[in-house]
Amino acid sequence: MALWEAILCALLAAAFGGLYLAGAFRKRRANEPPLEKGLIPWLGHALAFRSDGVDFLRKMQKKHGDIFTVLLGGYHFTFLMDPLSFGAVVKEARAKLDFNEFAEELVEKVFGYQPSSLSHKIMDSASTKHLKGNGLVVMTQAMMDGLQTVMLHSLGSAEGGRPWEQDGLFHFCYNTVFRAGYLALYGNEPRKGENGLPGGEKDDLRHSEEVYEEFRKYDKLFPRLATSTLSYGKKREAERLKRLFWGLLSVNNVHQKDNISGWVREQEQQLAEEGMPEYMRDRFMFLLLWAAQGNTGPASFWLLLHLMKNPKAMEDVRKEVDRVLRESGQEVKPGGAVINVTKEMLTDTPVLDSAVEETLRLAAAPLLIRAVKEDMKLKMSDGREYAVRKGDRIGIFPYLSAHMDPEIHPEPHVFRYDRFLNQNGVKKEFYKNGEKVKYFTMPWGAGTSMCPGRFFAVNEMKLFVFLMLTYFELQLVNQDVEVPPLEKTRYGFGVMQPTYDVQFRYRLRY
Ligand code: HEM
User: Fold this and answer.
1) pLDDT surpassing 60 at residue 487
2) Per the structure, how many domains does the chain have?
3) Inter-residue contact 268 to 185 (CB < 8 Å)
């Protein structure tokens, strides 16, 4: 064979190999879900999915029903859209459906972090110890202290009455909750500040503001970074920010702080004991910050906005907050002591609990992904069985399948603050096709990957709203302003953000 023929054969073989790997020759086999490969090899439907995941999945569901397989950027994803069948995925053994594989790829791409074999175990045990039970009492108090520093530091400093302040509500909520949570988790600036002079609240305020500003830059780039769709310039900016955070939150820097939370300290220590190098633990610190602080601020914004847009909801939550404060024997008065809201007090707020759950139904849109480790059968709740191939992925998107299903939640786009309010101590139940739905909302994910910070997150939001309603009068600058639409590129990444901010005013109540 002439040389050119050999080269041609090699090129053809490489092209066929590439197309094979890109899924171009994949055919739907018997018992497999409908297959959608799209027109572009490897990419498949990735572009449509990234630009508006909800719209794309809705169209696919209309065409194929409750289960279908789609090629997205080199992977075949089987989407399960029937909430009554979610148990089959959530409860499946890790040997068959694994959360870690996808998560590890993502955290390496986005945070440069390579987990060790024990990382997840270490996170689980630290979270059980510090973000639940007695640990949660300590963390809630630390958050309360953080909020006092960030929100209430200027109380009583205004001369001449109670002037209105104006701000973007999203900016205000995200900034406040992020900074208070950051101080609660990563500790305070050393009380002996620069040049040996006493540091303190001022240093915490300045430093946490700087961290927030940089964090927001990264946060805005995050969805496109995760889906590898950043322009060259933005990619470099993301790289710069990543390195900045590795430094800011380096183990060395964090060790200088006072009052670091047990959750952060213990995980870092155990990873060190396990032999993870220091530079990798620096990266872990950044990953934790993002996981812990990227969602609660935006969720607090939606909660406060919905309350401000719904006077009856606001009135009922305010009444509840006032009652809980009164029963704790505390009161807000000019020049009086700053109130202290405890975890105990937060256990007696059913109306606020329902408003938080409703907020997360409307605003939390995570995509839960599992890697298929062996060929398996997926059994739907109606008895149908589908074959799923090893190497594929399974996706569940509860926002569309459960949160926005009008049969489970009538008028799904409407904020009904009492939707989840238990009646006379009886837990609310939700139904579809006459069957009880177990997974009627899933803001925290489910199964092995369920958010370990969920109890703390809820307390963060509740503390924030508790203090806002107790201390401040609140007004939207334009009472008729619409609730802004969701920023579509963030579907799949936790709590959604608004496409624009909403101006509001606040001033002390007393
Ligand atoms: C409204 C606030 C929050 C929401 C909606 C939320 C939601 C979620 C979701 C959906 C997941 C992943 C589930 C999956 O991929 O299957 C997750 C993971 C995680 N969350 Fe949260 N989260 C919130 C706040 C927090 C807070 C405050 C902390 C910590 C203090 C935290 C720590 C984590 C960690 C460490 C993971 C990774 C768990 C793992 O790898 O197994 N989250 N969260």
Assistant:
1) yes
2) 1
3) no
